[in-house]
Amino acid sequence: MTAQIHSLWLMASPSDEAMLSGLVGDLSGRFGTPLFAPHLTLQGDTAMPPAALAQAIAAAAETVSAFSEPVACVEGSEAFFRSFYARFVVSQPLANLKRALDPEGFDSFMPHVSLLYGPVEAAAKAAAIAKVHARLAGRAIHFDRIGIVTSGQDIPIAEWRVVSQTRLRSS
Fold first, then answer.
1. Could you tell me whether strands 84-87 and 112-116 are parallel, antiparallel, or unpaired per DSSP bridges?
2. Backbone angles phi, psi at 83, to 5 degrees
3. Three-class SS of residue 111?
4. What percentage of the chain reaches a pLDDT higher than 90?
5. DSSP characters for 38-63?
6. What is the DSSP letter of 109?
7. Cα separations (Å) of 19 from 26, 37, 64, 99?
8. How far is the C-alpha of 100 from the C-alpha of 42, rounded, in Å?
9. What is the pLDDT of residues 91-137, one digit of tens each?
10. What are the residues facing 143 on neighbouring strands?
């Protein structure tokens, strides 16, 4: 039997999630790219059993209160899953969550919320990035929960599913 792959996502509050989902939807429609739920990946592609993941996120969520983090910038890259994204600095709450849930990945941690997946025409993407940067740079996004998600690089995006969520501590 093949191990099921999961990821751990930091998720925005419902109002910020709706705003980010609207951006993802607009960009997906404009560029013909996949739709997905906006999130900040804390750990990707792990075969750790869901029960162990649930224990890990429950412990981490007890140590970090829900928090708001301003978007540092909106930028793009050639990487499929980071084609166009809102980037954040490694703040103390983000650092604490990453160290608790994926300490081996801390040195390469680049917190971001992707807004578009996949390759698109460079000039049109650059123009869209500039427009979204003007809208989002400095805007605080409120993060309030961690999800365990059936997702991974080898799982079709349309099949990604949140299987459980744990709320961060109330502030």
1. antiparallel
2. -65, -35
3. coil
4. 94
5. --EEEEEEE-S-HHHHHHHHHHHHHH
6. -
7. 11, 11, 24, 28
8. 10
9. 999 999 999 999 999 999 999 999 999 999 999 999 999 999 999 99
10. 12, 67
